[in-house]
Amino acid sequence: MILIRNVRLVDALGERGPADVLIGEGRILSLEGGAAQRVIDGTACFLAPGFLDLHAHLREPGEEVKEDLATGLLAAVRGGYTDLVSMPNTKPPVDTPEAVRALKEKAKALGLARLHPAAALTEGQEGKTLTPAGLLKEAGAVLLTDDGRTNEDAGVLGAGLLMAAALGLPVAVHAEDAGLRRGGVMNDGALSDLLGLPGNPPEAEAARIARDLEVLRYALRRAQGRPHLHIQHLSTKRGLELVREAKRAGLPITAEATPHHLTLTEEALKAFDPLFKVAPPLRGEEDREALLEGLLDGTLDAIATDHAPHTLAEKEMDLLRAPFGIPSLEVAFPLLYTELHLKRGFPLARLVELFTDGPRRVLGLLSIHLEEGAEASLVLLSPKERPVDPGRFASKARYSPWAGWRLGGWPVLTLVEGRIVHEALE
Ligand SMILES: NC(=O)N[C@@H](CC(=O)O)C(=O)O
Ligand SMILES: [Zn+2]
Ligand SMILES: [Zn+2]
């Protein structure tokens, strides 16, 4: 039994407490204390349900030089995540039931965050032939996506949505029009002109979302079961507006935004530093403000990291050649807690919801609230500030666009079903 004493509670239902949270048999047994072998002082801290990341690249199998399950899932629990969806753009892509099972078994043996693999929508993520979704689901896949690539063939995406609808699986898309995106390495506009860098226009995202909404309408009309389209790493004001309108029209669509699009803009590219190179690119301040609005009004369902580790050697190449991607599993919550909640007054309960119930709903999972009988997959967060130190990351990507930023809200204790998987108490 573990007792977390005098701790404030925060979940999607709101803030309350302090309470004395007694944990045993994998559950919250009481909010009024009781005898325990281990007593942790939660004064000044707050307790939240464990986070779920809908979008992380853990690189296994095939690119373990960038990240693997052990380092990625350790980074996850250090970031307060008890559950994580791994992207299938590995080498080879995760497109068979055997590959899904292998990931699940290996992750289970590690005993860190629980892994929910996403599987490829198409064989080899080549955009041509649909994968055996029924078997993938049976093996444990929770979502289908060709992320890392875009879905160029609308017919294939439509057929994929029909197939997934029959199984109750969401299909997640990296929504960028390949033609408009061209070889852009940053947001297209005055700044890309000034820097002399190839631009990726915001319209590339909006154009692809607009198309995908029509594909979704088609699927909705023809499907057995309800199709579910999930838009990944939404980055533009216009893209957000399209999702908002679609939701108002009752279309079965959900969307996520990333820590980097919520806290950084294209201005970061001024120093030509590839650490800020990511797809879709960092946008303008107006886009960032629109995303914040979307977090508040429910257009966005979740904050998802798109943790995309590469080796430092790759990220130290010049801006044109370095790969796209920003790692963020270990800083995502402190970053948004500090930048949105502390600095801008963003409601804490809604922020926590965007890391917990929001993403859980996207996967059709039950919500976790801090009440008696609830599953004890929890994170204890400390308001104490310290600077981001990538040298201490568990991730193999020991660099960060946020290095040196002073943040509070660090996870000091993470529990999965009552078991301590991360501890950094003082
Ligand atoms: N987001 C990125 O910039 N990179 C991702 C791919 C992706 O999410 O599309 C990666 O796998 O490195
Ligand atoms: Zn993507
Ligand atoms: Zn991704």
UniProtKB/TrEMBL annotation:
The active site is at 306. InterPro entries: DHOase, DHOase/Allantoinase_Hydrolase, DHOase_cat, Dihydroorotase_CS, Metal-dep_hydrolase_composite, Metal_Hydrolase. Its cofactor is Zn(2+). Catalyzes the reversible cyclization of carbamoyl aspartate to dihydroorotate. Pfam families: DHOase. Substrate binds at residues 57-59, 89, 310, 324-325. Zn(2+) 2 binds at residues 147, 174, 233. Keywords: Hydrolase, Metal-binding, Pyrimidine biosynthesis, Zinc. Its EC number is 3.5.2.3. The gene is pyrC. NCBIfam families: PRK09357.2-2, pyrC_multi. This is Dihydroorotase. Belongs to the metallo-dependent hydrolases superfamily. DHOase family. Class I DHOase subfamily. Binds 2 Zn(2+) ions per subunit.
